[in-house]
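Hi V.,

You were right to ask for the full record rather than a summary. Here it is.
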Amino acid sequence: MKNLENLFKKPILVVLALMLVATSCDSWIDQDINVDPDAPANVPMNLLLPAIQQSMGYNLVGNNSVRTNNIWMQQFDGTDRQSFTEARYQLTPADVGNLWTPIYTEMLINSSIIIDKAGTVGKESPNYAGIAKVMMATALGIGSDLFGDMPYSEALQGGSNVLSPAYDSQESIYNSIFSLLDAAVVDLNSTNNALSVSGDVIYSGSAAKWKKAASSIKARHYLQLSGRNGSAAYTAALAAVSSGFSSNADDYKVPFSTDDKNPIHQFMEQRTDIRMGATFVDMLKANDDPRLPFYAAKDGNGDYTGSVIGSQNGDASRPGNYVAGAASPTYLMTYAELKFIEAECRLMLNQSGAQAAYEAAVAASVLRVTGAANTAWLTANIVGDPVTLEKIITQKYINSFGTNQAYADYRRTGFPALTLHPGAVIGQIPTRFPYPQAELDYNTDNVPSVTISDKVWWDN
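Predicted structure:
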């Protein structure tokens, strides 16, 4: 019996000893050494802000989104490895996690943190909140246009829901976008800010420019609803245009540098398996378009050539400095896009001014890309050429190189006409991105069952 008593006493003594050590450690070890200096619990808004913006520039309009749909739009051609696979319309759940995850972890959640911080009692800073709301609406808009339904109302709450949030319908997401942008303008109109905005690499804290961006993004997404809402969509978009960008100086873009390199530039350094698409290059060459030398680099023969879809022509021109220079910015939205929106709305509503808006849009695009007015080329090719929807969308397609917008407009209008890849694994150009593998694995009960041939809500 004595041995049995000792057998039970030993575990008890061990537990007591461990409790004593734990208590003693609390009394003499500085608990601050358990804080990870690389993961601070309280990051100030002026540090969160540029981090969100750089992620938007890299992921929303960079390698993880634009490269894929610019291949599908035949502005690029995938000539090898992963890009050739994507050119044949193979995009799997394993391929999109590098886009999906930063939308949440780096953009939406951090924007939500800024909004909360900006509302701290006694330290209210509504201008910060307004900027965060515009960024959140931008990320939701581009993300939803690619994926359709997305987690939103539960995804930013934290707690138990964060691991398995419900999916909001794309219609609901769009309503949230418009609400965020309206609220952003109210916040940006406020002059009662405890903290002045700093760390803003896009507009240097200019509330006036952020308000223009809010209205311009609103115009984009109202127009995206033209298939659903018809004339009402054009009317709403046109109303938003009036408060939007007024020149190229207002462009909504993220800067990069030779140290913090442009994402397509990085991709070409590391993989090099995209080339300019023949559809796009030939379109530019046919009209002696002055943007061609900026969009494309010369090939080994000193010419500008594109890879014919499916040809895997690795000798074709690489992307030029406009989209792939080390220090080239990435564009979330441009003044030229806004003028194309105005031109389409006026045309479809049978209003005057469509021609003037179309000409102004092309002129703004040429000026932004080349740095020169190119008046003679515009006069010979654009000015006075009667506007049609096809011409608007085709020129908008040229302007939208290096963004997601050509893909959105193609699904909405069918312009420009594109040829199916001869080795296509499905019978159409994909109409959406798939949901990522992590969602299929860990949010199985909520993630919608879709294929990349299914349409998003506004495309039905």
